[in-house]
Amino acid sequence: MTQPFRTSEGGRIDRQRPIAFEFDGRRLTGCHSDTLASALLANGVHLVGRSFKYHRPRGIVSAGAEEPNALVTIDRGNGRITPNLRATQAELYDGMRARSQNRFPSLSFDLGAVSNAISPLLSAGFYYKTFMWPRSFWRHVYEPAIRAAAGLGRAPAAADPDRYLQQYMHCDVLIIGAGPAGLAAALAAAARKARVVVCDEQAELGGSLLTENSEVEGKPASDWLVNALHMLRDADVMLLPRTTAFGWFPGNMIGAVQRVTDHLPDPHPRLPRERLWHIRAREVVVAAGAVERPLVFSGNDRPGVMLADAARTYLLRYGVKVGSRVVVAAESDSAYAAAVALRQAGIAIVAMVDRRPAASDVARSSGLPVRIAASIADTSGSLRINRATLSNGEKISCDALLMCGGWIPTVHLFAQSREKLRFDEALQAFLPGVWTGHARCAGACNGAFDLTACIEEGYAAGGANGQPQRARHPECAPALPPSVHKGMAFVDFQNDVTIKDLRTATQEGFRSIEHVKRYTTTGMATDQGKLANLNALAIVADLLHQPIPRIGHTTFRMPYTPVTFGALAGSARGDLFEPVRRTPMHDQVAALGAVFENVGTWQRARYFPQGSEDMHRAVARECRAVRNAVGMFDATTLGKIEVTGPDAAEFLDRIYTGSLSRLAPGRCRYGLLLTEAGYVLDDGVIARLGPDRFHVTTTTNGAASVLHHMEDYRQTEFPELRVWLTSVTEQWAVIALQGPLARQAIASHVQDIDLAPDALPHMSVREGHICGVPARLFRVSFTGELGYEINVPADHGPMVWQAIHAGNVTAYGTETMHVLRAEKGYIVVGQETDGTVIPSDVGLGWTIGREKPDFVGKRSLARPDMLRHDRKQLVGLLSADLLEEGAQVISDGAGIGHVTSAYWSETLQSPIALGLIAAGRSRIGEILHVPMPDRTIAVRVTDPVFYDRQGARLHG
Amino acid sequence: MRFSIFSLLRHAIGGTPWPEQWRSPEPKAAYDVVIIGAGGHGLATAYYLAREHGIRRVAVLERGWLGGGNTGRNTTVIRSNYLRDESAAIYEHALKLWETLAQELNYNVMYSPRGVMMLAHSVHEAQVFKRHVHANRLNGVDNEWLTPSEAKAFCPPLNISPDLRYPILGAALQRRGGVARHDAVAWGYARGANALGVDIIQNCEVTGISRMPSGPVNAVETTRGRIAARKVAVVAAGHTSVVLAMAGVRMPLESYPLQALVSEPVKPVLPCVVMSNSIHAYISQSDKGELVIGAATDAYVSYSQAGGLHVAEHTLEAICELFPTFRRLRMLRNWGGIVDVTPDRSPIIGLTPVPGLYVNCGWGTGGFKATPGSGHVFAATIARGEPHPIVAPFALERFRTGALIDEAAAAAVAH
């Protein structure tokens, strides 16, 4: 197929490699190295989208990241549909299918354009002034209609099958932008043997050198480029094309995203789609260039109206003519370079409309049909510009209109580094101010627009101690303040913000630039105002009769251009979302048919159904086994901290409520930790292995937070104590044996520990060997039965589990553990406690060592509210029906507490529950009520210990 | 001037300019009440002081631009299904005001009761949420428990696969919860207060709080001069402790950066607000089409209105896990705000030890939803010189007595 606007020669595309693609179902052909935008223009397609609010026809404005209009959806099938991509950055590949967005039924005939007809009604902020009556209509009529009209592309309906990777890198010098300044900086940095990385958002490195036809250092620019890249490769400089540095984070950490496969027609399935780089650089050189500043005039948004330098780029880089009769609107000499280049390619420049009051040397010598002190008053054309009307009334027919309002240095990343910008009056733009960090700026983003100056700045910036000199090149400046026009003169193309909207905002009192932005939405589109912001600022300054620096600028925020969620999420998906923690005995436990539950990051066995058992029947059987014989339980997930050092006992005295310095070696004690505010934070068993060594357990969820809590106090409050904390949670596999037959179950496996009740009483610990491996054997119980907890090095856990299980011991899970402990009135932190519970509330006031001078939380326990008699207290609740955990308990219609735990007790053959009830201990025997949605359940308040209140079974 | 479709039509046809929504006055020498901080809470306080208590000699001082702090930086979630009676009272008071706020202010704040759904990913979390549901029912606050398939029906893009790393076991849904347009709330209150005579003075930083020898406040020092005041109310969010230190009052506050981000706009895809506390994500879709996503606070205190990249990454890991169809969408903008956090994660509202000095702060990560209720009861407190009944439990004094109102500690329920 022919490409009517493709030149016969020149450019960096490969005419011998045609590429077939589709746009809105229309089959077209481009060339290898085209972008979607250049290929569309080669086919004469300017109309590519509709604007956000008025659905106005829109064309390609730019040739890069600043593009506001040419947003498309690219469909690769199989869940690989990506909305809102810039056609100017999408590399063409064979078989590409692209669609325009935000139009119905078609791009050329869009019913949404009715909003254009009533645009006077839809001025800035109109939606704050209406849609308020009748009240219910907002939710049901107005808002759904507005939502349907808004948005751009559609989110994919299927899950994204592509992979994304993240990678970390350190380097001496990171150079952002591989144009002349960036490459010169890289050459200088490489020459001093620095480790250098160069990234550039484009597919091909070179920046403006790719369209440069002048000479550099005595040779053609393209030769200089080839030579520079060659030297950099030889110097092992890492070159990252298609990589956008999007964010600057503290400590010179740069986030960059590399597009790996989007340009390939058929990528290898093992390649990630994108790779997110975290680059930590000693020095960063920003050489991000500049974008051309559009002009604001009535009808400046018609397809065919575009930036002059973009037209030059399309011609010189892609061999594409953007039109055949072209009007150029110039406020800067750089427009003439574009016009001359186009004329050389045989394009008719029908008028050079120069708004400056006097002709510059460049204008006079250009030989172009120049109109001095003239500007564009209006344009016409329905789906493409066909005529421009000048301020002097002259009407000129054309098929393209190029704008050049000067240049906007790309200071985005520099500003993100929290350094200050300064307004340059000559350029009428913001430039990097004086900076203090390790950031350097070179080239156009630093205000240097002359090629030689760019390269000089680059060499200086990449050098060992180069603070680049800022060059001044008046031929690229100045831009004039925008002229204020009637009609629809667009400042922000995508969001349809006009000069009139800005005027409305300032009239209504929105005078901070942040207010103007938020009220009109200027600069809030997907281009984040790369083209709009400076014009908006200048217009607001003009409207308020204030200088631009007084108005200031809005905050530059990451990302520079949008970043795929998937790249930010990286490989964290599925099982790697948060890697699953499994105990060493997981496979053995799973082989027994365990049903698992997530507890924090762990998977724990919840119950072990046999045959057709449901949870209720399995738990009942497991409970009977523990109460009547013996059960075994994988308790590995409990947190374990080894506390050592001469002051270990003193440290634990200060952290726990109890007096642990009085604990004899070989003995254990139940301990509570409180927050500074006196509330229960966690509990566990503290075992003293020796005078200066303790083995402390925490709850499963509390492992990390308790260690953090302890370290916090050790480092900040008690730095004088000689104590060390080591997390040993994963070093020990833990198997609990509970039940009257527990001793028999382990006796034959224990080699060198005397299990006799007098030798190893309840709440004691011994070190020895079990199944031939070193072990710490605790005699402790969380069921109320005779119990042991065997700790062996993690790798030996499966062997010991198998050996003991072979003795016909019933495995039980967390659900049974919960039932058995509730029968005994033992609390579970986080279930009986909720961050508002102090020890005495849950009957654990006895844990407090009265003689201790202090411990974390002690002072808070003396506060008046802690001493109230009507605090919520832990009690038992008996009812005919099983209660629901979390249900509220009422007395005389008022809520006085809630159910914390509720189970069927197989032992008691009745439902049991624990609850926190106001003044609960004084209500024992009372009947209270639990209101449910469908009925009210009567409950009798009891002691929280339902079984073996004397604790005789513990000491068996 | 009343806003309506008719006023829009008149201006569209006539082309006459709109009047200012608020004046930009010079500060007067003296006011009855000076409010420090022109965020949503401060402006609402001024509005209700003028509207309900007839106190119109009021100035709201703002260091920067009105609504530029957390009011304009939050993810706009509105709900009232809090666990504690005290919290439910104030947030439900606010929710009732939200329902008619657009009409009250004649400013469309776009309160959209599209439902707030909080996901439970563990047995424990399900128990905690059911406790909320039961407690809310007693307090007359709507909140219901949904099964995973009911949650999916309410929010079709949600991934309820049992193969999820943390499968969804159910959800608590408050149907009256939703979102609003945050900027419009500040602007609507500013316009309303201005119309009642309140002076909103932007670009006016408070540099000192002046007290009489006998103790009470009598003026504030500002970058635009001394302003006498019978009463001073500090509503300065993350900078409250700095301002109150000027009056010698120490506050139990820590300030953290909190991040949020938006995607590029897409057509409607997410009909409600979804929150997941255990995997740290909350998300809704704005009327403009952007997915609005809340991230976590940084782990350390700071006044920097930007956060680390890892925080945004962690949030998007969770979002992509819950909504695998969103993985190809793109982050458009990320920002931070400074949240002021109290030891019990509940706000501090009321009197201070200094006579005539009032404070409303400590809203942490969840203050936006309370804006109307907070301003309403704080205004009553200032006007009467004693705590409004809803405000009383939130007194600064509670950290001395121990009567904390802890929503977060064990249940880890984010605001």
The CATH topology of the largest domain in chain A turns out to be FAD/NAD(P)-binding domain
Summarize model confidence as the mean pLDDT of chain B: 94
What form of chain B results from the Cα inertia axes?
globular
- Helix proportion of residues of chain A, in percent? 10-25%
In the CATH hierarchy, what is the class of the largest domain in chain B? Answer: Alpha Beta
Return the CATH architecture of the largest domain in chain A: 3-Layer(bba) Sandwich
What percentage of the residues of chain A does DSSP assign to strands (E)?
A: 25-35%
* Class by SSE composition of chain A: alpha+beta
> The biggest beta sheet of chain B, please?
8 strands, mixed
| Assembly classification | heterodimer
Alpha plus pi helix count of chain B = 11
Distance between the termini of chain B: 37 Å
The total strand number of chain B stands at 18
